[in-house]
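Entry 14. Structure prediction run on the chain below.
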Amino acid sequence: MRASLEADIFPSLGSRPMASLKAGEVMAAIKKPEARGAGDQAGRVLQRAAASGAAL
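Output returned:
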């Protein structure tokens, strides 16, 4: 799981706190795993972002 986040999500969002992220930024990052067919991974990332206070 961490490897996937490091490959798909961290490069797009960087080390910023989740609460500082905008909905468009999170959605753009989620499109990366979706594009390679990893829909469950994208869903889990979205779930975690919402739980941690990202502005979705």
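Residues 6 and 46 are 15 Å apart (CA to CA).
Filed with the rest of this week's runs.
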